[in-house]
Automatic annotation (TrEMBL):
Superkingdom assignment: Bacteria
Signal peptide positions on this chain: none
Annotated GO biological process: lipid metabolic process
InterPro entries (UniProt xref): AB_hydrolase_fold, Fungal_lipase-type, Sec_MonoDiacylglyc_Lipase
Residue ranges of domain Fungal lipase-type in the record: 60-204
Protein name: Lipase
Amino acid sequence: MKPLKRYQYEHYAVLCKLAYPRIFRHTRYGFDPNGQRIIRDRHSKTMIRVLWSRQKDEVVVVFKGSHSVSDWVLNLALWMKDCRSLGLPYHIHAGLYYLLQQESQPVRNEDKLGVSILERLETILLPLIEQGKRIVLTGHSSGGAMACVVADYLERRTPKCIKRVVTFGQPAVGNWHFYRQYTLKHKTYRICCDIDIVTFLPPFPFIYWHVGKLLWLYNGRIYENTPALIRLGRSLLSWVIRPFSYHLMSKYIRNKDFFDER
């Protein structure tokens, strides 16, 4: 599995952050003027941005995380939903399934009514894949979970079309069969910062499973594939001892720049 490079991390992290504002000037980040397609949810709010340029061989698909009350309510749909109707041999979080299967409101004149989020995204991506471009999927929170499911769906229908999947603060997606059958473990990077509580959700160990390579950003270092219990234990211990850490001389030395040179 190739390491995720710093410029790739920064690029995808910035795109995920900029997915939330209503206006996103994609040309500032190297994409063509006509290299953006927007997919809207049932409430006509932007949910996914598809970005590309003629000079690059990759298309970046950015999934927005929960951004409305109804989305947060769907996060509480903790039961599993069978995905065999999508050609996927496993079960995933029911709220996540509904997000992907909800009707997508048209953006362009040629967009049809009665098309799901997943169907509209596939319609946009297939011509780009036929041009030889490969797909990078990224997202924050529930957007990262959707990115994993969509990536696996596309890879099964069009093999080798996925370049990588990079998620930020992503909750677990599906059951044991999802963990076993997910085809892109070697191309999926799951980034977690400190004790991000969402990465421990849903709170049902051995029922919901994560996939891919975990990169845990903690105490100025990157840890790989640290088990959830160890992450939780270290973070809680850090909280307990943090007040005493300010007593160390290293803290006093580090703050020398507060004083003017005399």
